[in-house]
Design a protein that fits this description.
The longest helix has 19 residues, at about 195-215. This protein starts with a helix and ends with a strand. The chain has about 375 residues and is α/β, with parallel strands linked by helices. The chain is built from eleven helices and 16 strands. Its EC number is 4.1.1.20.
Length: about 375
């Protein structure tokens, strides 16, 4: 991925920083758009994955909408020029302030996650004499076969309306003059690499769509969420197989005439376009462990500490023919969990070497913090 020119450029910059490959981002966006167009599918970008302005501008230019999970994400989407009628607002805990602001902006749809939330939105919309479009997010109890901390579609999860609460949802919808029901919404988890999971989701979507239709509702939209994963172990395989992904839904969703199918993709679009570039501060060789201590830490990339997530780590200052050593690659933060990888086989490293932590475009920069009074993480882009 990195040319000699890239490495020379990196050596002149203050580390740590996120490096974004904008050409790869554009290729990924175009691949997704072309695959979705075959089926007439609508794509919203999940802004929680990365809300870097430069990335958002490219995503908006591709024609995608925005999937937002906070009031400030809704504001950011509008500031960056996303079409309001392509903005959906999800989230299990929307505040009254956030709902009111989204109502004022006349966004496309609220993805509603409880019976009580339906009642709250109806009341707030009524005070403004507006009608809010809503989709009911249903918890389908589908196992995404992903990390426990990023599973969202099981009965034990906090997200969505459980099946036993749907009759109450239907009653609220029928008696709420300031709500317009337009469809149903699902999201079962993140970093999903087994496409059979989505086949199971389609079967559940079909069941719930029929449930609403049997009770007199017109289901104009099926929003099946996102969650498509990337290959963290092989970052050079950079663009996910969007054709295979969308084909699953094309084959197994029982789509009605004039019914729209919407997706909310995040990681799959931006995950591979970035690497965190750091510098070796110290090398500590011991009897049981060898440590590389970087100037990047969990304040720059939280995922390994939070999820025990894997990222490929490379010493880009050394040739591949150099002798190799197993290192624990750690950061400078005063926490034992500040570790990017254990027993990582790298070229023998020394102070000043540049280290690339790959596949950090999603949930990297956006989850950075000021813990230990760390500075804002820097970013740079491909020329």
């Amino acid at each position: 991925m990195f040319s000699n020119k890239d490495i020379t450029q990196f050596a002149e910059l203050e580390t740590p920083f996120y490096y974004y490959d904008l050409a790869l981002l554009q290729q990924t966006l175009e691949s997704c758009a072309e695959a979705a167009k075959v089926h007439g599918f609508h794509v919203h970008y999940a802004m929680k994955a990365n809300f870097n302005d430069t990335l958002l501008d490219s995503i908006k230019s591709t024609g995608f909408g925005a999937d937002c999970v906070s009031g400030n994400e809704v504001k950011k989407a509008i500031e960056r020029g996303f079409n309001r009628q392509q903005i959906v607002f999800a989230g299990v805990g929307k505040s009254d302030k956030e709902i009111n602001e989204a109502l004022d902006e006349n966004i496309f749809c609220f993805n509603v996650e409880s019976v009580q939330e339906l009642e709250v939105i109806n009341a707030l919309a009524g005070k403004k004499n507006k009608v809010a479009k809503v989709a009911v997010r249903i918890n389908p109890n589908v196992d995404a076969h992903t990390h426990h901390n990023i599973t969202t579609g099981l009965d034990e999860n906090k997200f969505g309306v459980n099946a036993w609460d749907l009759p109450a949802c239907a009653e609220v919808l029928k008696k709420s003059p300031f709500l317009e029901f337009i469809g149903i919404h699902f999201h079962i988890g993140s970093q999903i690499t087994n496409l059979e999971v989505y086949k199971n989701l389609c079967l559940r979507v079909n069941e719930f769509a029929a449930w609403f239709e049997d009770r007199g509702f017109i289901v104009r939209m099926l929003n099946v969420g996102g969650g498509l994963g990337i290959d963290y172990h092989n970052p050079e395989q950079q663009i996910p197989d969007f054709k295979a992904y969308f084909k699953i839904f094309g084959d197994f969703l029982e789509k009605r005439a004039n019914q729209e199918v919407h997706f909310e993709l995040g990681r799959a679009l931006v995950g591979q376009c970035s690497s965190l570039i750091s510098k070796v501060l110290y090398v500590k060789n011991g009897k049981k462990k060898n440590f590389i201590i970087l100037d990047a830490g969990m304040t720059e990339l939280m995922r390994p500490a939070l999820y025990q997530a894997y990222h490929q780590i490379e010493n880009i200052s050394k040739q591949s023919s150099a002798a190799t050593v197993k290192y624990d690659v750690v950061g400078p933060i005063c926490e034992s969990t500040d570790c990017f990888g254990k027993e990582v086989l790298l070229q023998e490293s020394e102070r000043g070497d540049l280290i690339a932590i790959r596949s950090t475009g999603a949930y990297g920069e956006v989850m950075s913090s000021h813990y230990n009074l760390r500075e804002n993480v820097r970013v740079t882009f491909s020329k």
